[in-house]
Amino acid sequence: MRFGLLLTSVHDRSVPVDRQIAEHHELISMAVDHGFDLVVAGQHFAAPTLRYLQPIPYLTSIAMRFPSVEVATGILLLPLHHPLTVAEEVATMDAVTGGRVIMGVGIGYSQDEFDAFGIDRTTRTERFEESVEVIRALWSSQPLNHHGRFYQLDDVELSTLPVQQPHPPIWVGAQVEASVRRAARVGDAWYAAPFPTHRQLVDLYQAYLEERAAHGNRALTAIPVRREVYIADTPAEAEVAVSSGAASRYGTYRSWGLDVDDGLGRRDWLDNRFVLGNPSDVAEGLSHLMAQVQHSHFIYKPQWPGHDHAHAMAQLKRFGAQVIPLLSG
User: How many angstroms separate the CA atoms of 270 and 289, rounded?
Assistant: First the structure.
């Protein structure tokens, strides 16, 4: 199993952007020292209260600064983009980095983002599937004639092709059964979001395997999984420490339109989605999940709103120095 570092946002746009970048670079340096070889960054638009640096240019700069890591868009909001633009930009990114790119994509959920782009949110699933089809075809290096519901291309060829053959891996972010089954059909991997409970994650994994088998039993290439982790000396201390940050982070998700409420109380909500405790507790909890869901990558996030950079660095250091050796063992 490989380990990836998720770069997330804990700052709004009032914080100097060079501070955010410097903090991310410090986190990546420490992660590399502890064996991480993947850096992941996501995408949101028009969110001044929680600044997201756009992942294609940002991850390209990171890949050039840290030549030992792969980079993954986790995720691009594909229905908000024209597939020709994505195909060209990701191919350029792959060429510039020497083939160290994974394209993670999803359908998006924020009504405000769809409204800002003037795109009907109810079309997002169809746009997504058509876009993946177009991008794969463009990466094949053959002239493309495509006449779909949303995109029309006549004899179109890319100016830049990916270095990886046949193309960069396509990870599809998904968190409910219908979208997980879609990931099995159209993607190279299901990128498992942190929002389902542990039990739901196991059930969704079984649905993913069933759907892949129903469409030719393609061999699994990757199952990148995100779970929320917080390390302290005891589970109780971890719960107290992470509660405010989790409430802030998930409160933002809810305000953007993501449904992450399931009627559980705070403690049960944390227990069902988070892995909390000392390094042994965390390793045991992750090992239990890994026995039920085949991981190729574990994507780890050390940053939480309300916690300063030193705190994130301390969390990453404990995960890298104390949890990873237990998982590897």
Answer: 15
d(CA 156, CA 76): 23
The closest alpha carbon to 187, from 131, 145, 119, belongs to 131
Spell out a b/e string for 163-188, using b for 16 or more CB atoms within 10 Å of the CB, else e.
bbeebbbbbbbbbebebbbbbbebbb
Token pair listed for 110: 């924020």
* C-alpha torsion angle, residues 157, 162, 168, 173 (rounded to 10): -60
Residue indicated by tokens 């395997």: 209
Rounded Cα gap, residues 306 and 91, in angstroms? 37
Tell me the β-bridge partners of 6.
40
**Residues 9-31: b if buried by 16+ CB within 10 A, e if exposed:** bbbeeeeeeeebeebbeebbebb
What lies within 8 Å, CB to CB, of 185 at 6+ separation is: 211, 215
Q: What pairs with residue 102 in β-bridges? A: 72
Q: If we measure between CA atoms, which residue out of 266, 175, 185, 179 comes closest to residue 226? A: 175
Widest pairwise Cα distance in the chain: 61
> From first to last of its 329 residues, what are the pLDDT tens digits of the chain?
899 999 998 999 999 999 999 999 999 999 999 999 999 999 999 988 899 999 999 999 999 999 999 999 999 999 999 999 999 999 999 999 999 999 999 999 999 999 999 999 999 999 999 999 999 999 999 999 999 999 999 999 999 999 999 999 999 999 999 999 999 999 999 999 999 999 999 999 999 999 999 987 666 777 999 999 999 999 999 999 988 888 788 888 888 888 776 555 566 778 888 999 999 999 999 999 999 999 999 999 999 988 999 999 999 999 999 999 999 87
Terminal Cα distance for the chain, rounded: 12
- The residue written with tokens 């092709």 in the block is 161
